[in-house]
């Protein structure tokens, strides 16, 4: 149990709710390294209920945490050394959340508390039924890991208190920043919000040769957002508050928007500070928020002067970039679950206080994230930024590094309201090759016609699955390459995450949007289908240098057609892919896929044919 100190409650008025920014030092999670047992690297990590201080001016907050740390310990492993982890559920009691829904107009989500001063609920505000009854039912997913389906954190394989999940991670992948978090079916958003997340670092010889900043100058930055409850006087209590706004649809249903909170945390501390030497530092940034996007910028505390030129990105989700990359103009946008390996040269900022800020359009009322206080003295730093980071990096291109013989998977991301469903949806699409099966009258529910940008041919697809428990339709042969086509037909930007493999983006192209509906022009939202073949997409936004690296999570905006390529050679089993806005994931935007040996797949009888049932299809533009 964390030691607590009694302090007065804090009034909640204003963007900071009375909390002093940059008052508390950044907490750095402890490092956990495997120990050798019976010729096998092993660890045991226990989830427990504990109390932490999110800010020194707040009362303690009850959380669920790995080994009692929020975020969990940073696990460090070597490439090629398998690790077995026993993830033990030792959590007492029910989930430590108050979850409420509130009309967006009268009680926006970026304000703490939800009751009137007399304790009554404002009009339209209500508790989300059932959340306070949730037991500790948890399963750990090592996000970005190449590991078998039995170790991957299959959402239904969650365990209750006093049970354990046994997982083996081969660590047969290049040096990178992974992270582990809860993945329980339908309640991931609540379990992760309660505190279940941590960093997992893989190291290898290629990374060692760079002699990057290490020790106290290599710091994980787990960024997240939270909301807090208030008492009858409007003072913050420290109690985690999961408050989501809703809109009332024309049909009278409540359309919930994803959670977003007013308080930004780094390593479990609200608006912390870090004292740094005037040397290079390495920061392993993880966006562990439920839904918030961050547009990261470095600015001078006194003048607001942009200092992005002191920052270089050296890695993404899947490992090192081929060479250092400057931040994009306006800052680096990082979606939920994305990681960024950043170097900052503080020798250029001696004696200054600088802030890491969020300039994204969905930023909280207070855009600051944390502060760095740079010492005012010269330091000898033998580190020099290398020109080449990863000599082993190979850029993927269709037909060369991606062989001609590969699978195609088509996924439609459709806007709220499509076919009468209130929430955004994810449709698995199967091409109709028999013209007699194409409906004579369009639009028809679940029928999407696309124009192949390479051949100009019209291809007709049907929705074959949407919810997780629908028929499995994606089967990939082990060691086979697959190109995933995410076709966004309208709605919010989705960070799409595919388990097991690491990918490279091949193309981004754009479909025209109807300004009246925000959906792709030619997509009938009410029916949930295209009225006619959508025109071939035009050129999309160019890939940033960061997107040319290996990644497992991609931002897909309305109207975009994104193609990514990866090889499924790491393991076999049942896996998942989903939107990593956790509210969307839990509300249905998650689907399974299967990887199995081709020799076995030939004997597998299922609805949609063999491992390469998708065949050759459009690549995107």
Supply database-style keywords.
globular, 621 residues, Immunoglobulin-like, 43 strands, eight-stranded mixed sheet, mainly beta, seven-stranded mixed sheet, single chain
Enter the CATH topology name of the largest domain.
Immunoglobulin-like
Number of separate helices = 4
First-to-last CA distance: 55 Å
Provide the domain count.
3
The percentage helix is under 10%
- The poorly predicted ranges are 1-7, 609-621
CATH homologous superfamily classification of the largest domain:
Cupredoxins -  blue copper proteins
Biggest sheet layout: 8 strands, mixed
Name the average pLDDT. 93
- Overall CATH architecture of the largest domain: Sandwich
Instruction: Give me the secondary-structure category.
Output: mainly beta
| Backbone shape | globular
Radius of gyration: 24 Å
CATH class categorisation of the largest domain: Mainly Beta
Percent of residues in beta strands: 35-45%
- Number of beta-strand segments: 43
Give the strand order of the largest sheet, numbering strands 1, 2, ... along the chain: 31-32-30-29-34-41-36-39
């Amino acid at each position: 149990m964390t030691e607590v100190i009694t302090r007065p409650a804090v009034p909640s008025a204003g963007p900071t709710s009375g909390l002093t920014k940059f008052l508390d030092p950044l907490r750095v999670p402890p490092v956990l390294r495997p120990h050798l047992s019976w010729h096998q690297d092993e660890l045991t990590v226990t989830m427990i209920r504990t109390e932490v201080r999110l800010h020194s001016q707040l009362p303690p907050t009850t959380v669920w945490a790995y080994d009692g740390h929020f975020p969990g310990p940073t696990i460090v492993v070597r490439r090629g050394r398998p690790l077995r982890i026993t993830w033990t559920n030792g959590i007492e009691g029910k989930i430590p959340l108050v979850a409420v829904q509130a009309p967006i107009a009268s009680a926006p989500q970026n304000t703490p508390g939800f009751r009137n001063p007399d304790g009554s609920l404002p009009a339209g505000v209500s508790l989300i039924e059932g959340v306070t009854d949730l037991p500790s039912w948890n399963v750990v997913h090592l996000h970005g890991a190449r590991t078998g389906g039995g170790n991957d954190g299959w959402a239904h394989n969650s365990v209750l208190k006093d049970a354990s999940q046994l997982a083996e991670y081969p660590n047969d992948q290049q040096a990178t920043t992974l992270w582990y978090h809860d993945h329980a079916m339908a309640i991931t958003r609540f379990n992760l919000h309660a505190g279940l997340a941590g960093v997992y670092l893989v190291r290898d010889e290629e990374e060692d040769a760079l002699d990057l900043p290490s020790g106290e100058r290599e710091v994980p930055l787990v960024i997240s957002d939270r909301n807090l409850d208030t008492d009858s006087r409007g003072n913050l209590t420290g109690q985690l508050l999961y408050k989501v706004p809703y809109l009332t649809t024309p049909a009278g249903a409540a359309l919930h928007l994803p959670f977003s909170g007013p308080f930004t945390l780094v390593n479990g501390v609200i608006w912390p500070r870090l004292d740094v030497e005037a040397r290079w530092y390495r920061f392993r940034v993880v966006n562990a928020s439920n839904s918030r996007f961050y547009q990261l910028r470095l600015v001078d505390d006194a003048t607001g002067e942009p200092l992005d030129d002191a920052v270089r990105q050296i890695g993404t989700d899947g490992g090192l970039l081929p060479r250092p990359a400057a931040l994009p103009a306006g800052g680096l946008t990082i979606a939920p679950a994305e990681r960024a390996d950043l170097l900052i040269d503080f020798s250029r900022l001696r004696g200054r206080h600088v802030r890491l800020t969020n300039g994204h359009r969905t930023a909280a009322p207070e855009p600051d994230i944390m502060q760095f206080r740079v010492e005012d003295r010269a330091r000898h730093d033998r580190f020099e930024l290398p020109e080449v980071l990863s000599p082993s990096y190979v850029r993927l291109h269709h037909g060369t590094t991606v062989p001609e013989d590969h699978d195609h998977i088509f996924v439609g991301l459709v806007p709220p309201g499509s076919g009468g469903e209130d929430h955004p949806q994810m449709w698995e699409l199967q091409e109709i090759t028999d013209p007699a099966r194409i409906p004579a009258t369009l639009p028809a529910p679940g029928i999407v016609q696309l124009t192949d940008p390479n051949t100009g041919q019209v291809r007709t697809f049907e929705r074959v699955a949407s919810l997780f428990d629908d028929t499995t339709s994606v089967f990939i042969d082990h060691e086979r390459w697959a190109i995933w086509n995410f076709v966004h037909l309208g709605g919010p930007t989705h960070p799409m995450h595919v388990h097991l493999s690491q990918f490279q983006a091949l193309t981004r192209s754009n479909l025209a949007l109807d300004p009246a509906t925000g959906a792709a022009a030619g997509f009938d939202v009410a029916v949930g289908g295209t009225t006619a073949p959508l025109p071939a997409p035009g050129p999309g936004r160019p890939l940033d240098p960061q997107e040319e690296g290996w990644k497992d999570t991609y931002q897909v905006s309305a109207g975009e057609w994104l193609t990514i390529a990866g090889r499924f050679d790491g393991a076999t089993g049942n896996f998942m892919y989903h939107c990593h806005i956790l509210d969307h994931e839990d509300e249905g935007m998650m689907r399974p896929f299967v990887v199995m040996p081709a020799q076995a797949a030939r004997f597998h009888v299922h609805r949609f044919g063999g491992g390469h049932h998708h065949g050759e299809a459009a690549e995107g533009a």
